[in-house]
Every structure is written in structure tokens, then in C-alpha cells.
Amino acid sequence: MKTSLLAHAGRVWLALILFFLYAPILVMAAMSLNASPFYQLPFKFTTEWYEEMAGNEQIIAAAIRSVLIACVTTVIATALGTCASVALFRYDFKGKRLLQVLLFPPIAIPWLITGTAMLIFFFFIGIGRGTPAVIVGHVALALPYVIVTVTARLSSFDIALEEAARSLGADSWTVLRRVTLPWISPGIVAGGLFAFAVSFDQFVVSYFLSEPGDSTLPVMIYTAIRKGFTPEINAISTIIITLSMGIMFLATRKAKFGGEH
Amino acid sequence: MSLVDVQNVTKKFGHTTALDNVSITFDNGGFFGLLGPSGSGKTTLLRTIAGFYYPESGSILIGDRNVEKIPVEKRDIGMMFQSYALFPNMSVADNVGFGLRVRKVPAVEEKRRINEALELVQLQALADRRPSQLSGGQRQRVALARAIVTNPKVLLLDEPLSALDKSLRVDMQIELKRIQREVGITTIFVTHDQEEALTLSDRIGILKAGRIIQAGTPREVYDRPVDAFAAGFLGEANWLPQQLLDGLTLPGEKQSHRFAVRPEMLTMSDAAVDGRNSVRGKLVQRVFAGALATCLIEVKGEQWKLIARDRDLPDFAGEGDVWLNWAPEDTIRVPA
Q1: Is the model's pTM score more than 0.90?
Q2: N or C: which terminus of chain B carries fewer CB neighbours within 10 A?
Q3: B68: which DSSP letter?
Q4: What angle do CA B140, B145, B149 make, to 5 degrees?
């Protein structure tokens, strides 16, 4: 039958996608537990690489720095982005459309170009390189993601809810805190996750803006690979992937991406 | 004693005048219906009283306070929205208690008043539910309880029953009226449904193009509409063709006036009836609808409608010449 053939092909297609998406990750995770540093089989279980990684101060320092930068970026970008979304939703002002349109290109512009532009600009205005520059750059990159996500959530918000709260005597701060924010919180959580991911995964902008001594984890991994591939990198990568997938899993359950209920 | 007094209020949106020098008084404890077609300004008037819009000119008095420059949250009103606007993240009890918490009412009193309000709308059993777990009628009751729990000076209802299906709507009309009487709160509601306006209101205001055309009791407005629009908007009107006016007994001068009869005032017969106004027509269609029947009759090119108990109608074959009769005092007279 035609439909079942189509459904069958669809299943194969899905299986292929999942295979090419996850097989490299699984291989990497397996190799992080394999004794051979040259990825030779047969597989021999060891935690040697994890121990070695734990002793590698450079990796640990870079990991901590990456997490800190991502957290700071998340807080700043989520707060600014949420304020911007609420303002764009509530108020009509001159140039609102233009502002909304201008939010999208940064998502599409290649990071290499954004990074170069930022590096030049930051030197021009005197911020230069270093962790503050990295944070400013990450916030700028993450902001559109937060605004888009929160705005999407706000678009399903019934403005009568705010009006009802006001008619019951609530001032605008109470309305925001008790009615609007609870409604958009799944959007804020999702936006925050995007911001964290954009910052944590960020290579190009971090590479351009960080100083040699204090690079982020992706930059450090890149530098390490250039010197020679070691299973330590597999180990740290496996940890990162497990953590990010765990966070994403929790967040999707909490944030109800599929809507209410 | 008047509780809400709107005087010479004008409200514009850009170049459109939504309210054009409106003056209307709402008596204390009354149930007042604002009726009009869409775009007539009825919702704008309600929202201006609520405080969502500030008028360009004029004054609004709620109680003894001038409120036209006071924001919504300080006007001490209760409002029910067309979508009910229940807070989805709160339980029924928390929804009802919202206005009390904002006013920092002590917890014990808050609980007591929430219970009273839920009792009034017969929803105590559902206090812990979420709005998403309620039916349409239950949501409406919660919205009502939430709006009156703070003892506001005035209750404003924006198309309160339009989201309900027909049978539930009739139940809720009765319920709404009972609760309003029990609480005794001055209530203003907006509707485009004339039947709803007639059922619920002590007084009705008819709006058209940002102006109040007529205000009065439902009976006054129905029996003595001030113009052709009011006559046709509240109830139906059969307009008398100009060439038939001679020979009929009409209330007042014919000059530059139009005359009409309500469909239920008519009787149908095969000959003119003495002492009544009679016109000839052609029965086009007779529609049986249970207790009542509706007849469509052509009278000198005008479509007339007659509504009567089916058993009271003579047994005409279905088509043909008939006489339509009515008492002269039932004739409606409006300026042309």
C-alpha cells in the first residue's frame, strides 16, 4: 500500500537522521572510556581519561570560566530581552516596527563576521579584549533569541488578563509580577536556555574577544585539538553533552514547549 | 439617587469620534443595559467608565467622586470581560481573592469573603480547580465572583453572556439577575443582543454612532421608540406604507412622521375588523415554530411580519389575500 510505503520510508529517514546525529556523539562517549589513546579496538574500559582531565587545570579553569560567562550572559540577556519583549508588546511608539525588524539579522549574520566586527568595534571604543568584552558580545548575540522566544509566548497572551487585574485594583508592577510574568515564564525559561546555549557553545566570538590566558572551553578545546587529539577532550565533551541534554530535558518538561497542560 | 453620572463625554480615537457628547445617568442599584450595533460606542462608553480610556472632555462621577482622570485601578470598579480573563496560573479561589490580596485584606477575612462570593455563584466545591478545568458557565461564575468580591461601587459587564451557547445563556441571564438583586450592586452591561437587554435590564440605553439615542425602561423604549432606528433595533417594526395612512386611526399628526406596528400586535383575518386599523396584504409564508408561528405578509411592497400563537391564527391555506388588524393605540409614531 502506498501510505504504508511512505510511512516506512519516513521511518527509515528518521532513523538515518538520528543515526547521523547521535552516532558520532556515542562513538565519542565510548572512546572517552576506551583505554587506547588512538581509538583502537577492542574496547577496553578505563576511567583514565576522566582522571587525567580532572587533573588538567587548564581544562577545569576554562570550563568554570565558560559556565560563569554563560550564566552571566543568561541573566543579563534574559532580563533585557524580557523587558524589551514586554515593552514591544505593551506600547506603541515611533520606530517600533523598525526595531522589531532589526532584531532578526543578527541571528542570520555569520558569527565570523559578527565576531570580526565586534573585535574591531571593541578596540575602537576601548573595551578591547578580555572577559567583559566576551560577555558583552555574548549578550548581544543572545538577546534576539530571548526576545523572539518571549515575544512568541506573549503573542498568545490575552491583554484582558492585564485589564482584569487592573480593574481589581492592581498597579502596573503587581500586574506584571502576578499576571504577565507567570504567563510568559515558560518563554523566559526557554529564552534563558537559548541564551545559555548561545554563550556556552560560542566559539568564534569568544575566540576573537578572549585573551590568550583566559579562553573559554570551546576555544580551549580547539586549541588543544590543534596540538593533538587526546581522549581527555572526549571526556570533557561527553560530560558537557550529558549536562546540556539533562538541562534541556528538565527545561522542556518544565517549560511546556508544547503549550499549556 | 444616581451612582454613575456621565456628563458630556466625548472620546476620539484618531479622527473617529467614538463617543459624541454622551450624557447618561445610572441609578444606584439598577441594572442598566447599553445596547447598540457594533461600532456604536457602547463598549467605548463602558471602558471609559471603567477607566481604560480617558475622555477628551466631559465628566464621569462614580458615587461622589469625579473619576475621569483617575486610572482604572483606583476607581473601585468590578468588571467582567467577554473572554472572562481568568488568571490561568491561579486556582478559582485565588482568582476570586485577587482583588482582596491587592487591597491587603487580612487572610482570615479574605478567606471568608472568597467563600461568600463562591457561595453566591454556587461554586464552593470547585474552589481549588484551575480555570482550564471549568466549563464555560462555571468560568463565567468565577469571573462574576471575582468582580464583586471587593464590593465595588459599580459592576461593568462587557458582553457577559456572548461566549455561552443559547440554552446556558438563558440560565445565566436568570442567574445574573438573581445575583445582581441579591448584592444590590449598580450594574452596567453592554450587549448587542436585544433579547438579553430586555431580559436583564431595569433600564436600557440605545446607542448609535457614538450617541445615546434613547434611554428608559425596556417597556418605554419598546413601546415608544424615539426614532426609526430605536424602533427597528429593539424589537421588530412593520413600517406602514405612506399611501395607506389615509383612513387609519393614527396617534398624532401624520406630517413628516412614520408609523409602525410590532409583529405581535397584529391579528390576521379574511375581512377588515371594526374599531381596529386594518390593511390588506398578501400572505407569503407561514412558519410554524412550536408555540409561535411567524407569517410573512407583503403589504404594498413592504415585508411585514406577524407573530402569534399558532392556534390563534385562522386556518388560511397558506397563500392569498388577508387583512391585518391592530389596535390604533399600538401604532408606533416616530419622526421621519
Answers
A1: no
A2: N
A3: T
A4: 160
